Amino acid sequence: MGAYELKPVFSRGELSPKLHSRADLEHFKTGLKECQNFMVMRQGGLTRRPGTQFVQEVKDSSRPARFIPFIFSASQAYMLVFNAGVFRVYTLGGRVGSVEVTHPYADADLFQLDFDQTNDVLDITHKGYQPRRVKRLSDTSWSIETVPAKDGPYLPVNNTATTLTPSGTGNAVPVMTSDTAPSGVCSASDSLAGFGPFRAFDGNGSTFWTTTDKVGWLSYQFAASKVIVGYSVQTSNYLNPGDPSNNGPMNAPKSWTFEGSDDGSTWIVLDSQFGQTGWSNNETRSYLFSNTTTYRYYRINVASNNAGTELDIASLRMLELPPNAATITITASSIAGINNDTGFQSSDVGRFITLLGSDSIYHPFQIVSVTSSTIVTVKATGGPLPSARGTLQWRFGAWGETPGWPAHVATFEQRKVYARTNTQPSGIWATKTGGYGRELDFSVSVPVKDDDAISFTLTDVNEIQWIAEGADLLIGTAGAARTMGRDSPNLPFSANNFRQALASTYGSQAIRPVKVGSSTVFVSSFGKALREFVQGDSGAGYATPDISVLSDHLFAAGIAELSYAQEPDSVVWLPNGKGELIGLTYEKDQSMAGLHRHLMGGSGFVESCATMPGQGRNEVWLIVRRMIGGVSRRYIERMAAPFEAATVTPDKAWYLDCALQYGGAPATGVTGLGHLEGQRVAILADGARETDQIVAGGAVSLASGRPASTITVGLPYLSRARLMPSPASAGDGSGLGRRKKIVFAKIDFLSTGSLRAGRDEATAEEITLRHTNDDLGAAAPLATGFYDARPQTSWGDKGELMLITDGPLPATIRSITLNTDPEP
After folding, report:
1. Is residue 371 within 8 Å of 329, Cβ to Cβ?
2. What is the pTM of this model?
C-alpha cells in the first residue's frame, strides 16, 4: 500500500545542500532540492518563470550596461540604460524616440552609481563624480547636469595653528568714507546728524545710520548695475543709559522689504522679512534670495522696528551674484590642516571655504582659482564678512575633487541626505529642510535653527555602504547597521533633535538595498547573504536577520545588484556572479521566503536587473549577455507577464527567452529575428508547439506549413523542480536515507501545457494531460486539476522526484501527493 505524503507548499524554494538531511526542520517539508526556472508563488505553489521579450541591443555591446529606473508615478515610468557614455530611455512600448544623453561615468563605475528620485528629478551619486541630476523635461527631452551646492557642506573646524586671511570682505558695496566716496551714492529717508547713510557702509560695526522716525529706508546706488542676490543686516551696539528703549536690539529693524530699482523711483520687492525679533548687540543676520535682474539702486525699506526709540542699522552689506562678483584672495599662514597638510591643490577649484567673522558668523566663499599651496582666489557665496581679518576659525569644504564626492544619496524627512566621501568614509550630510531645489542648501544658522542642515560623522569607523529611507534613516556600513532619527520621538526631526544609534553588528556590501513592505533587504558584507533591516517585534530597536541562510549556496558567486517586483508575487530579483538570475519570493507576514534560480535560454548571462511599474504588475527588465554568431551581444530584455487563463488565451503565452511574437493575418513564417541569427529556436504557433528551427536570414518557417495568426519565436529554457528526499518510512522510525521508491504521484496542475516526471532528466516521462475527447487536430488545452504520474523510479532513488518542462507553454503546480513504498 505504501505511505502517502502531501506536499501542498513550496514556500522555502531551493534549499542549501547543507540541509538535505535536516528532515527535522519544518523548512525541509516546504523546500526543494532544486528549483530552476520555476518561481515560488506567494500562495505557496510553483509556477514556471515567464520568458523574456527582446527589446533592443544596447548602443555598444562591447561595453557594460546598467539600468536605472526613472519612476515619476505608476503610469509614468521609464527605464534608463547607461552604456557607452550615454543613457537611452525606454518605456513599456520600447525605446523613447531617439533620446540619447551623454553622461560622464566610466564603464567601470556604472555599477557603483547610487540614485534617489524626487518627482521629475533623479539624483545620482558616485564617489568620483560631483552629484548630478537627470531631469525629464518631456517624454523626448532629457538632461543630466551637475548639482550646485550652497554654503557647504564642510569638514570639521580647523584645529591647527593655520590662519586664513582674506584680502577683502566679499561685499559688493565698497567701504564708504562719505555718502559719495569712493564710488556710488548712499542715501536714506532721514538721518540724525552725524549718523548719515554712509555709516551703514563704512565697514565699522561701531558706527551706524539712525533715524528717529522708527521706520524708513536706506539705499545704495551703484556706479553700474549689478545683480544682488543677498544682503546682511547688522544691529548697532548703541545703549542710552537714560532711555531703556533706546538701544541697538530694540532699534533693530523688525519687518522690511529689500528692493531694487533702475531709476530710484520705481522699486521692485526682491525679499520680504517679518517678525525679525530677539536681536543682540552688533548681531548680523544674512538673507539670500533668487534674482537674475540687474538694478543700479538697492534699498532696505523698514516698516517697523523692535519697539525702540530709533531705527538703527550698523551695517548693510550686499552679495553680488557669484559668477559676476569681484574676487578676493585668501592667504594661509601655512599648509597645516589643508588637504592633509599638502596645502591648496588645483583640484580645489569649486570647493567652499567658510571663515568665522568678527560677528561670530561663518561666511562662505568658493574657490575660483589656486595661486599656490597657500593662496587661493575666491568669490563670496553668502553674507559678506564684516571686516577683512585673519582667523583660526575656518572650515574647508567636505566635497570636491580633492576630498572626493558623496557616494550615496537618499531622501529623509524632507531633506536630501548624502553619505561617504574618500576623506570622510563615515560622514553624513543632510540639507536644510526642503533645501534641495535648484541647488543643495547646507547652510547653518547661528544659533542653530530646526530646519538647518545637519552634518555628522558616525561613531562607527567603517565605510558607509548605503543609506535608505525608513522610519529612521537606515545606514549600512562595512561593519554594522546603524540608524539616524529623532532623539526625542515626540518632536520633529531637526538639526536640534537627531541622534544616531547602532542597530546590529552585521555589515553590508555597497549594493543598493530594496524596500519590501516594512523591511529593507540588503546584501551582507561579503556578498554571500541577504539580510533584512526591520524594527524589532516590540516596535523598539532594529534587527537584521539573515533571510537567505537556508539557500546560501545560491550566493557563493556573489550578488551584482538588487531590485524588487511587488506584483504579482513579491519577488526580490538579483543577478549573481555566475550570470544566473536569483529570485526571492518574500512575504514576511505569510512566513514566505522562497529562493529560486533562473538560467536564461541560450546560456544568457544576466548582468543587470531592474523593475518598474507596468500594466497590472511590476515589470522585470534584464540586460543579458549572449553569444550570437560567435559575437558577444548585450540585449535589453523584459520578462513577460505570467499566464492568466482569465485574461489571456494559450496562443498568447510567452515562455521563450529573447523572444518576439507575431500577431496578424495567418502566416507560415516569421521575419525580423536577426538578433537570434544562427540560433536554434522554439516556436509556439496558435498555442501548439512547432518543430524547433534555426534562424537564417533573420527568419524561420513553420515546419508544419500550417498558417498561424499568433506565432512566438524564442530560445527555449529548461524548468526543473526536484523534490527533497521523502522521509516517509514503514512506521519504524525515519525513512531518510533508506531505500524507497515512488509508486505514483498525483499532481494538481493549473493551466499547464506539458510536464515530465521521473527520477532524473534521462528517465522523465511526459505526463498525459490530454483527454480522449480533446480535438487532436488542434492545440492541446491547458490542463487544470489532478493528474497521475507513474515515474520510472527504483528502490535506490530514496523517494526523490524531478519535474521537468522545456516547452513554450506555462506550467503551475499547486500540490503533489506522493505514494512511496519504503523498504521494510
Report:
1. yes
2. 0.89
